[in-house]
Amino acid sequence: MNTSAYAAAGVDIEAGDRAVELMKASVARSRRPEVLGGLGGFAGFFDASALKEFRNPVLATSTDGVGTKVAIAQAMDKHDTIGFDLIGMLVDDLVVVGAEPLFVTDYIATGKVVPERIAAIVGGIADACVAAGCSLVGGETAEHPGLLGPDEYDIAGATTGVVEKDEILGSHRIVAGDVVVGMASSGLHSNGYSLVRHVLLEQAGWALDRDVAELGRTLGEELLEPTKVYALDVLDLIGRTEVHAFSHVTGGGLVNNLARVIPDGHKAVLRRDSWTPGPIFQLVQQVGALSQADVDATLNMGVGMVAVLPAESVDTALAALTERGIGSWVLGEIQSSDGEGSAELV
């Protein structure tokens, strides 16, 4: 049997083709009616005539990755949930401005294409797209022998959404007296894993299969808990009541991310006693002997998304989120200040 020069160099074109065949059914599950064609082309197609229904459509776009959480998936050889982390990082940055996510493209770089592993990754991405109401319209799988180990990979993606220009949410809508509502995270989501891995795996020497009583499961199961995708919950909330702004709590923690949408002359005052972070956050802090400032500035501390809305919208918002299974509570309020927009925990 002849081996091509490219295969001899470590790139298996046939394995890539098999991976595409295995992922086709998963991708089809995420298909919206505006999507044209199928996998295998040079570009994905989305019928933009659907935007004619908008008065003044504005496209929103976001790109992101998963970070070092992929190392946990690789170590546990479980690859069908990491896609939720990718989609969560992508689409929930769109919905905070009021945009409906339309489609996603992904990129997977790996040391060796194992078709079943690639199909599992893409299957998770497609399932998360379904949960977000958008379509996976294409992507790329690249084999990088010599740069990545045979079992190593990294994933990234990009997404596009649409919002009416006069319905864009953000700091320009926030006023003093607005209420800040917190929405519970499903865990660490996809941020701070370099710190978490350093503290628990490297410094403490804990194994991923270690049963941790505080967590009620193994450490690996906790660390691989998928990111909560809030897209449809946020869009539902926008449709039910007036909302001025959202903040997606990712890298940098609650205060830093919320401050991004607070206008000058205002501050968000958040009550630390209004919620109790989950056990994983306390565990990382205690085992690592970390300061409160360190964990606050790195981890979401149990708050994955934040809404800023008028006081008269609060009861409707809390009821709507409860109906959709989202833990929520009054986290704080917006006050006038003399400086730049800011947020603080008190």
TrEMBL record:
Pfam families with a match to the protein in the record: AIRS (PF00586), AIRS_C (PF02769)
Subcellular location: Cytoplasm
Extent of the signal sequence: none
UniProt-listed SUPFAM superfamilies: PurM C-terminal domain-like, PurM N-terminal domain-like
Reaction(s) the record says it catalyses: 2-formamido-N(1)-(5-O-phospho-beta-D-ribosyl)acetamidine + ATP = 5-amino-1-(5-phospho-beta-D-ribosyl)imidazole + ADP + phosphate + H(+)
Alphabetical UniProt keywords: ATP-binding, Cytoplasm, Ligase, Nucleotide-binding, Purine biosynthesis
InterPro entries, sorted: PurM-like_C_dom, PurM-like_C_sf, PurM-like_N, PurM-like_N_sf, PurM_cligase
Keyword Cytoplasm assigned: yes
GO-annotated molecular function: ATP binding; phosphoribosylamine-glycine ligase activity; phosphoribosylformylglycinamidine cyclo-ligase activity
GO cellular component, one term: cytosol
BP GO terms, sorted: 'de novo' IMP biosynthetic process; adenine biosynthetic process
This enzyme's EC code(s): 6.3.3.1
Taxonomic superkingdom: Bacteria
Domain PurM-like N-terminal as annotated: residue spans: 57-163
Pathway linked to the protein: Purine metabolism; IMP biosynthesis via de novo pathway; 5-amino-1-(5-phospho-D-ribosyl)imidazole from N(2)-formyl-N(1)-(5-phospho-D-ribosyl)glycinamide: step 2/2
Residues covered by the PurM-like C-terminal domain: 176-339
NCBIfam families: purM
Family of the protein in this entry: Belongs to the AIR synthase family.
Protein name (Swiss-Prot/TrEMBL): Phosphoribosylformylglycinamidine cyclo-ligase
Organism whose genome encodes this protein: Tessaracoccus rhinocerotis
